[in-house]
Every structure is written in structure tokens, then in C-alpha cells.
Specification:
Elements lengths: L4 H15 L8 H14 L5 H11 L3 H10 L10 H22 L3 E7 L5 H13 L7 E8 L2 H9 L1 E3 L8 H7 E3 L4 E4 L1 H4 L2 E5 L14 E6 L8 H14 E9 L5 H4 L4 E4 L4 E4 L2
Parallel strand pairs: 1-2, 1-7, 2-6, 7-8
Antiparallel strand pairs: 3-5, 4-5, 8-10, 9-10
Bound molecules: S-adenosylmethionine.
Length: 276
């Protein structure tokens, strides 16, 4: 089945408008293969029919199925270790110091674009290691993703060993239970700290209270967005962060290039961004 430039652009613009994700021309074959499968599943005959269906006949279900096919969900535990080190050893102690002065006992984290859950569970493990007595804290980790399929995997919390390739041996025994030779389940104590929710970052303004989060992680998500959507997402994150709160993006994504709302600070080995 062929896809011409007009059809590619129409589908690309629909996806972009609803999710922020932007496909460059060079991704035409990636998109084409996935759309062909959706055309087949819906018993339609060609691209134009599929575009009309998406535009006028869809109650949202088909768009969700398309999104579940086209998002890149690559992730693993303790991804971007140096950044997590900066979070654990420098940013978190600063926030804890502020909380101590204010006699606050809550920590709120948002993992936006959490995929199959490795990122929010990694944060849960780090908090468990770094807080003196986690049960004395009210820890809330919200983990959201636009892809429903990955959230089902995240909620189960069962992972192949390749997802754990960066997890140190002692942490594997402390935080996971082997399911079989190849699979591990995250323990209940870490699981309990994470609430998974389906949602589009760009539509999360109403879902999430303002000035609420101490930390937002949105790593390896904005690289798939166009510039306008990136800026929009960072404006939302800025609103949702508390003063002094930190935002973490992926290593190839620079907050500074997108907005000057955040203050860039150099920690020992890492640049971090903060709402000051
Ligand atoms: C490459 S994964 C990154 C996972 C994790 N943050 C990490 O760094 O390992 C990107 C995730 O962002 C999600 N995503 C893409 N656009 C989104 C949007 N508009 N709202 C919420 N999630 C989105 C995708 O479904 C995918 O699971």
C-alpha cells in the first residue's frame, strides 16, 4: 500500500495535534508500516479511508490504538545513571533540607512519559535508599503515559532481566523477586509508591495541581515532539513544580534551548534545572 506526501502529512499533523509527537519525512516508512496494520485491523481499504475514519468516524479508540503502535517506549532501570546520582546525592538532600525547616513530610514526584514503569520504580528505589525512614514520609510518585499498552505492563511490574542490566546485584535481591529464570517482579513496597495514570502531557494541566511537585522527570519524551509542543510541555511542568523543584529531561534534550523559565545549576558532574 502506498502513502503519498499529502497522506503522510495529514496523518502526521493529526498525531502532532493530539499528542505533540512529530514525525519527520524520513520516518515515513516507520509510520506507513504501522498504519497499514491499523488499516488491516479495521477492515479498511486504503490510506484515505483510514484518514477519514480517524478524522470523522473515530470516538478516540482508533487514535489510541495508533498511538500504542507508534510511540517509542525504550526504557530500563537506572537509565542515565549520572543524572540519577545528581538527583539522589545533590538535589534530593537540598529539597529535604527545605522540608525539614518547614516541617513538611511529603515528597511528590511526576514521571511524565513513564513507558513500562522502569523510571518511576527506579525513583521509588532511590527514595527508599536515600530517605532515613521512608515510612515516615508521604511519598507520591505519579507516573503517566499516553500509551495504554505500556501502562498495563507497568502496573504488573514484571520485567525481563535486560531491563535490570544497570541495577546493582544487591539492589536486585533487595527490590525484586524472581518470577522465573528470566523475569523479575518489583517488590510491593516500591510498587505502592507509584500511581500509574493514562494521559497526554499536553492535556495534563487540569489533571495535576499547580505548584505540587518537588521533582518532575520527563526523560526521552520531548525529543519526539515538535518545538511548539516542547515549549508547551515545559510551561505545564513549570506550573506544576513547586518553587525550588527540579526538572530532569533526557541527556539529548536541553531545557535551556527551549525556555528560560528554569534556572540552570551545575552540580558536581551534572547540569540540573530548577524552578527558582
Ligand atoms: C522513550 S520512552 C521514555 C521512558 C522513560 N521516561 C525513560 O527515559 O526511560 C517515551 C515515552 O513517552 C511517551 N509519550 C510520548 N508522547 C507523550 C505524551 N504526549 N504524553 C505522555 N506520554 C507520552 C511514550 O508513549 C513513551 O512511553
Amino acid at each position: 500500500m502506498d502513502i503519498n506526501t499529502r497522506q503522510f502529512q495529514q496523518i502526521r499533523d493529526l498525531i502532532n495535534k493530539k499528542s505533540g509527537i512529530f514525525f519527520e519525512e524520513k520516518k515515513v516508512y516507520f509510520l506507513k508500516r504501522r498504519i497499514e496494520e491499523r488499516i488491516k485491523q479495521n477492515g479498511l481499504s486504503d490510506m484515505d479511508e483510514y484518514i477519514s475514519f480517524l478524522k470523522y468516524g473515530d470516538d478516540g479508540n482508533e487514535f489510541q490504538k495508533l498511538i500504542d503502535e507508534i510511540t517509542i517506549n525504550e526504557t530500563y532501570f537506572f537509565r542515565e545513571f549520572e543524572q540519577l546520582k545528581a538527583f539522589a546525592e545533590e538535589c534530593l538532600p537540598e529539597i529535604l533540607e527545605i522540608k525539614k525547616k518547614r516541617k513538611e513530610k511529603s515528597i511528590n514526584v511526576w514521571s511524565a512519559g513513564c513507558s513500562t514503569g522502569e523510571e518511576p520504580y527506579t525513583i521509588a528505589i532511590i527514595l527508599n535508599e536515600m530517605l532515613e525512614n521512608i515510612v515516615l514520609w508521604d511519598v507520591f510518585i505519579l507516573a503517566t503515559d499516553i500509551n495504554k499498552r505500556v501502562l498495563e505492563i507497568a502496573k504488573k511490574g514484571v520485567y525481563e532481566s535486560r531491563s535490570l542490566k544497570q541495577v546493582a546485584g544487591p539492589y536486585i535481591s533487595k527490590y525484586f523477586t524472581p518470577v522465573d529464570e528470566e523475569k523479575y517482579k518489583i517488590n510491593d513496597a516500591s510498587k505502592m509508591l507509584v500511581s500509574f495514570k493514562h494521559g497526554d502531557i499536553l492535556e495534563s494541566d487540569a489533571m495535576v495541581p499547580d505548584n505540587f511537585y518537588d521533582f518532575i522527570f520527563c526523560r526521552n519524551v520531548l525529543i519526539y515532539f515538535d518545538e511548539v509542543s516542547r515549549k508547551q510541555a515545559l510551561e505545564i511542568f513549570h506550573k506544576k513544580l513547586k518553587y525550588n523543584g527540579f526538572i530532569f529531561l533526557g541527556h539529548s534534550e536541553s531545557v535551556g534551548r527551549i525556555t528560560d523559565s528554569f534556572t540552570c545549576r551545575k552540580m558536581k558532574n551534572y547540569y540540573v534545572y530548577q524552578k527558582l
